[in-house]
Amino acid sequence: MEIHRQTCQNCGSRELKNIIVRDFESSEKVFVRCHQCKQLVARYIIANRGYYHHGKGFESYLRGLNRGGTFMSGKGMKSEFEKISHQTQEEYQEILRQLEKEEKL
Q1: Using one digit for the tens of pLDDT, what is the confidence trace for 44-69?
Q2: 47: number of Cβ within 10 Å
Q3: Of 11, 16, 26, 64, whose CB has the highest number of CB atoms within 10 Å?
Q4: Phi, psi for residue 59 in degrees, rounded to 5
């Protein structure tokens, strides 16, 4: 696993803000803006079923599926949500462990 902590290529700041653009006719996009110098840092397109908002619950996940045009059975959606929720927590904890190791070096 490779972990990258994004920085502004203009000023080197790590104080970045995400601007999420939701358009029902195309994929959701995330624009990353530097909080310090206000420059555009990056743009990401959120893949179908790629949006998971921790702490917002199952309804938030369903809204994301609806935006992507995906339809699954209720049982399948709940199972997929629980899987994504669990995987996201595990990945996040691993990222924190890796960052902690880097900071100790």
Answers
A1: 988 776 777 788 888 777 776 665 55
A2: 10
A3: 64
A4: -65, -35
For the entire predicted model, the pTM comes to 0.59
Residue 21: give the domain boundaries: 1-46
In this prediction, residue 89 has a pLDDT band, given cuts at 50, 70 and 90, of confident
Domain shared by 90 and 104, yes or no? yes
Same-domain check for residues 78 and 104: yes
The answer on 28 and 77 residing in a single domain is no
Rounded distance between C-alpha atoms, residue 93 and residue 79, angstroms: 21
- pLDDT tens for residues 30-43? 899 999 999 999 99
What distance in Å separates the CA atoms of residue 29 and residue 5, rounded to the nearest whole number? Answer: 19
For residue 94, what are the contacts with CB-CB under 8 A and spacing of at least 6?
Answer: 1
Tokens describing residue 100: 């902690």
Check: CB of residue 18 under 8 Å from CB of residue 6: no
